[in-house]
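Q: I'm writing a short explainer about ISSpo6, transposase orfB for a general audience and would like to include a description of its predicted shape. Could you first generate the structure from this sequence?
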Amino acid sequence: MAFSKLKAHLRRLEARSFERIFEALGSICDLFTPTECENYFRAAGYAPD
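A: Of course. Here's the predicted structure. Afterward I'll give you a sentence or two in plain language.
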């Protein structure tokens, strides 16, 4: 699910070159809240319950 959100972000910014993708990746931290990240790790089995 996180990857889907990331891909949508890259498409929205029309990042088609390496430079544009690199710039867009810098704003990824603003996309995900800490709680959301924790939920992704829990769902993947990487975080303890």
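A: For your explainer, you could say: The longest helix spans residues 2-12.
Q: Perfect, that's easy to follow.
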